Amino acid sequence: MPEIRDIYTDTEAMDIGTLHTRRAAIIESAPKNDDGSPRFTDLGDEPLSELLAINRALRKKVATANGGKRASVSKKQPKPSLEDLL
Q1: pLDDT of residue 26
Q2: Alpha carbon separation from 34 to 26, 27, 42, 53, 74 (Å, rounded)
Q3: Number of domains present in the structure of the chain
Q4: What is the pTM of this model?
């Protein structure tokens, strides 16, 4: 089994499209549950390690493509006080 550091190096060299294609192939190869969703618990260590590395590389590359900005997270509206409700 390859070291995770080696997998990170390999995935860092891939472009975003290739990473998405590889990720989809790994997920498609996973055994399916009764509802058709992938059962990741039955994947081996190597495909799981590669998925981890791919997701890490995608987060970095997408953030870089967005100018280093993270995706915006909506803030929850403050709950009204009891006095505001009365």
Answers
A1: 94
A2: 19, 16, 14, 28, 35
A3: 1
A4: 0.68
Residue 14: inside a domain: yes
Q: Are 16 and 65 in contact (CB under 8 A)?
A: yes
Unique residue bearing structure tokens 């993270």: 70
The structure tokens listed for 10 are 């390999």
Residue 54 belongs to a domain: yes
8: its two tokens: 């990170």
Q: What is the full DSSP assignment across 35-49? A: TS-B-GGGS-HHHHH
Please tell me the distance from the alpha carbon of residue 48 to that of residue 61, in angstroms, as a whole number. 20
Does residue 83 lie in a domain region? no
Check residue 68 and give its pLDDT.
Answer: 66
* Segment 18-42 mean pLDDT: 93
- Amino acid identity, position 53: A
Residue 71 lies in a domain: no
